[in-house]
Amino acid sequence: MQEITVSLIVENVARLCQEANFDLPSDVRDALQEAADLEESSQGKRILGEIYENACIAQQERIPLCQDTGMVLVFVEIGQDVHVTGGSLTEAINAGVARGYQDGYLRKSVVADPLHRKNTGDNTPAVIYYDIVPGDQLRITVMPKGFGSENCTALGMLKPADGLDGVKRFILDAVDKAGPNPCPPVTVGIGIGGTADKALLLAKRALLRDVKSANQDPDLAALERELLEAINKLGYGPGGLGGRITALAVHIETYPTHIAGLPVAVCLNCHAARHKTWEWRGEKVE
Amino acid sequence: MSKELQRENRGYLNSGSSQQCGSGMNDDQELIQIQLPLAEGITKELRVGQRLLLNGVIYGARDAAHQRLIAALEKGENLPVDLRGQVIYYVGPTPPRPGRPCGAAGPTTSSRMDRYTPQLLEYGVRGLIGKGRRSPEVINAIRKYGAVYLAATGGAGALIGRCIKEMQVVAYPDLGPEAIYRITVENLPVTVAIDSRGENLYEIGPAQYRRI
Known about the structure:
heterodimer, A: alpha/beta, Dihydrodipicolinate Reductase, domain 2, 2 domains, four-stranded mixed β-sheet, globular, B: alpha/beta, five-stranded mixed beta barrel, 7 strands, 24% helix
C-alpha cells in the first residue's frame, strides 16, 4: 500500500493547471507546424503562424495561451492500493484548482449556479472523473476546457439502422455546424457506443490522446483518417476564414452498446488543446 | 487614409504563399493603420478581407455586460459608458500579472452576443470585434447602420494581449471578467469579416475551399 497526503495533491494540481494553460503540448505544436506546410490559404497560413507565435509567447512569459482558461476537467486514475491521508481527495483537487488559478493569474470562469450565474471567484468546482484501477499509483490529468469549443458539442442517439454512414454524416454535420466558432484547427473527439453519457465521456477523453496517435483498431484508424480528410474539405480552415486545415486530428473511441441504440458524441477542442498529466509512485508503506 | 482604403483587395484569398510558421505576423498582405474611434464614414470604406491594425480605445464587453446594457437601453436609461461611435471587443481577459497592463485577451465567440447586437448598433456602436459567424439579423443591422464586424484570431490570447497598453474596468465591476473594460490598443491586428455592405468573410472564405 502507498500513502499520499492531500497537500502533495493540492500542490501538483495547482502546478498542472498553470502548466496546461501556459504550455501548448509539443505534439500540438508539431501538428500546427505541419498544418502550416499543408495549408493552401495564405490567410490560413498567417493564422497558423499567429497561433504558433502565441504558443511561444505564452510559454516564455507565463501568460495563458487563451483568455478562456476554461472550466477544469480532472481525470483521476487511482490505484486501489493507494491511501489518501490528511483530508478529502475531491477537496484537495478543488483546492489545487483554486490555488493554480489564483497564483497563475488565470481567469475565473465558473459560475456557482447555471441559472443565477454568480462567479465562484476561484474557478472551482472542477469536473472530476475517478477511475479506480489496480496498483498503488496515482495519475492525475488536468484539462482546462474552453467553452468556445465546448458549446459545439453534439450528441446523436442514432438508430442501429443508421449504421456507419449515419455515424459519418452525424459527425461531419456537427463539425460543419460548429464551423468557425470552436477556433479551428480543432481536434475532434468522437465517442461511439455505450449510453448517451458514456459516449460523451469517450469523446471527451479522446481529446487527451496524442494528436498524431491512431486508434489501435485498424478499422477505426481508417475511419479516423477518412473523417479527417472529409472534415478538411469543409473549407473553414484556420480561424474559420477559409482554408484546408479545419482539423488537426480525429480521435475515435468506442464502447459496447445496447441492441436498440447507436449513440454518437462529438466533442471539439480548439487549437489550444491543453492538458497536463502528473504520475505519482511513492515509497512503499510497510 | 481613404486612398489606402480604396485600394482593391488583391484576391489574397486565392494566393498561396510559402510563409514559414512562426513568422505569421509578417505576411505580405497590406496592413491598414486605423485610428480609433472610427471616424464618421470610415466604416463604409472598409472592405471584407482587409487587414487592419487598430490604435486607440476600444471597449471590452461580453455576455453579462451585454445583457445589462440592453436592459438599460430598454428602460430608457443612460448607459454607464457612452458607446456611441465606439468599437466593442468581445473579450474577457485574464487578470494581469503585477506590473503588466493585461494578461491574455483574445476574442470570444461573437454569436452569443447576436441577440443584443442589433439594438447596440441602432444605439450607435460602430464596430464589433470577435470571432465566428453572425446571425442574419446582425448582418442586416451592420448594413443598415453602416457598421463593421472585425475578426481577431481566436485562441491567440497571449499574442493579442501584447497589443493592449492599458486596461481598466469602467462599468459593472461586480461581473469580474465580464465587466466592461476600457482598453487602449496599439496595432491590434484584425480582419474585416463583415463590411457595411454585408459582405461576409465567414461565407466567402470557406466557400473557396469547400470541396463537399
